[in-house]
Amino acid sequence: MRNCFGQLAAGVFFLQPSCIANAQVPNALERAIEDAQPCRSLKTKVSSFGISVEVGVDKLDSVKIENLQLSVNGNTAEASARGTLACKTSDEALVKGGFSATAEVRLKVDLTTCKMTETSIEIVKTGGRFGDIVKGLETEISGALRRSLAKNLAKPCEK
Fold this sequence. Notes:
The chain is of the alpha+beta class. It contains four helices and six strands.
């Protein structure tokens, strides 16, 4: 059960599977997110002077978890988190820039099946050169995050 809570906490915000239950430092969740490299596959198109260039905003700049709340009542776990993720282009990029996105995530999980029964993901604030693009893709980003959450939360039940 303790392992499941570690994965649930990491899963709440831009999750990749991680076991942080035994971590002793206060920023263990942020480090778990950093280890997952959530920016790695992010790409966007930028137009300048009539030329469109695909830009990889694939380097993690920072992660900050403002709050995280977990509660368990019987076989139902509830989690909510608010945090900011910032990504940037590599130093070698022709067009440099980045974005930050602050998101609020809420979910309920059935601990007997490891399935989400409710989810809410909202990008509440964006910033940076590519921040407007992130806000415009909120539906797609939220859907991808929801699928990632479902996939990673199901892993404890596979064992």
